[in-house]
Amino acid sequence: MGFGQLPYDVAHVLGGAMLLVSFVLLYQRRIAALVNALALQGCLLAAAAVWQGYVQGAPQLYVTGLIALAAKGIAIPVFLHRMMRSRMPDRAVEPVGSIGLCMLGGVLLVALAILVVLPATTGARALAREDLAIALSIVLLGLLTMITRRSALGQVAGLMTLENGLVLGAVGVAGMPLVIELSTAGLVLVIIVIAGFFARLLRERFDSLDTDMLHPHRGEGQ
After folding, report:
1. Count of helix runs (H) and strand runs (E) in the chain
2. Which ranges in 121-215 belong to alpha helices (H)?
3. Are the beta carbons of 164 and 137 closer than 8 angstroms?
4. Predicted structure pTM score
5. Domain coordinates in residue numbering, the chain
6. CA-CA distance, 65 to 45, in Å (whole number)?
């Protein structure tokens, strides 16, 4: 296998792995496993950005990869794990519908992304076309994850998946401007949403404590 084929193969493996993790996030019911899958997808995004930076000769994509690794692969998952251990048990993240229907919907969305992107990008580089199709599939799966999750953390996972798909699409297009700014803006949005989720947990905890203080003997036998 020559180097001419290697960029396509590595980019497809990394993008396909991110797409597979998106299906794992759509299927997953446990909070700890959900956060672990998010960390894995963040690491894969970092690897994809670094590889595209090498293939395109674009050093700025190394910065994008470093941001993805530090924030999405390490910092955010570690924070979510600690917050879950201290605030809530490893309980299920129940979907709105059945898992089978969710997975079927995900497959249909991937097919839709391929049917939309490939004809619309005729004449572009094959690597860019296929990367955009994968990226749009991940974005749509992120939206589906947000729709089919009741819990705030499940919706945060969907938002992070959506943002990862946008960044993957941006790094896959040679000469795409403002890639670092796009990834940073998306990361700030995710952090704001996570902060809102954390504030909601704290408010629920304080409300529970206030209720216990006002009714200390509630639940005891009559």
Report:
1. 8, 0
2. 126-147, 152-172, 179-214
3. no
4. 0.81
5. 6-214
6. 7
| Spatial CB neighbours of 110, under 8 Å, sequence gap ≥ 6 | 19, 137, 140, 141
Residue 70 CB burial class (10 angstroms; 0-12, 13-18, ≥19): middle
C-alpha distances in angstroms, 186 versus 53, 58, 87, 167, 182? 19, 20, 26, 8, 6
Whole-number mean pLDDT of the chain?
Answer: 79
Strand pairing partners for 54? Answer: none
The token pair that represents 82 in the structure block? 């600690």
CA atoms of 156 and 160, how far apart (whole Å): 6
Task: Round to whole Å and give the CA distance between 190 and 163.
Answer: 8
Q: Tell me the two tokens of residue 49.
A: 């950005």
Structure tokens at 152: 């705030």
Please answer whether residues 48 and 72 qualify as being in contact, where contact means their C-beta atoms are separated by less than 8 angstroms: no
Cα–Cα distance between 93 and 197 in angstroms, integer? 15
Per-residue pLDDT of the chain (222 residues; tens, 9 = 90+): 344 577 677 888 999 999 999 999 988 878 888 889 999 999 999 999 999 888 888 888 898 899 899 999 999 888 888 877 766 555 556 666 678 888 899 999 999 998 888 777 676 666 667 888 899 999 999 999 888 887 777 888 888 999 999 899 888 777 666 677 777 777 787 778 777 777 766 666 655 544 555 555 544 544
